[in-house]
Amino acid sequence: MLSVLSSRRIAVTVAGAALISMTAACGGSSNAALCTEATKLMTDYTTSMASVGTDFGKYNEVNQKLSADFKALAGKADGELAAALDGFATTWAAFKIDEKDPASSAAAIQEISKKSQEATLKFGSACA
What we know:
Elements: H1 4-25, H2 32-50, H3 56-74, H4 79-94, H5 102-127
């Protein structure tokens, strides 16, 4: 069974891993400001997740907000960075926890981990 605590921990862990990779990627590229802004989105997300508690509706809202923020940031970028940010937006938009369907939620957690890693690799390349 998927507990609220484990689902949040997993999401925060995935976000944390992405954040560490994103922070390391913010180098001297021409996209440095956008890369820094994307990293801040993940930091803010992690903070927001800590305040959600056991409310699945808010949990899903925070995920959707992160997706929208990445989508908006992708609109300011081009090329590889835009693709990476779109990847993050798509990943987080699809991540929804349904307390009535633990199996589906567990699968969603596995999928977000995989997709987030893919987007993080693209992000690292674009921001190097």
